[in-house]
Design a protein that fits this description.
alpha+beta, seven-stranded antiparallel sheet, 7 strands, about 35% helix, about 35% strand
Length: about 130
Amino acid sequence: MSWQAYVDNLVASTKVDKAAIYSKAGDSVWAQSVGFTLSATELSEIVTGFDNSSGLQAKGLHAQGIKYFLLRADDRSIYGKKGAEGLVIVRTKQAVLLAHYPEGVQPGEATKIVEQLADYLISVGY
């Protein structure tokens, strides 16, 4: 399956409306929804946040110029929320999955589908 197919499947689930897959280092885009692009600074802050979340805790989580309230940040997952929408970001062995869920979707539903994809990718070496 292509990387774009994973992104398309996340969006097709209706639990997320935009998604992207980046390399673990954040230096390349493997696949993304149309128009869902992060700046180099935003991506760098996210990638750094997996190992040291102090920057995200101090400044917040940013994606596409929008600041999200940081709910969780550890070496695997970063969650953010702004109003009724939010972000689920999960790091695997070789990739970073980033998904946005819209208003009307329960955060737990979006989290479950993104974390399940991450578990699968980890199980096959990614």
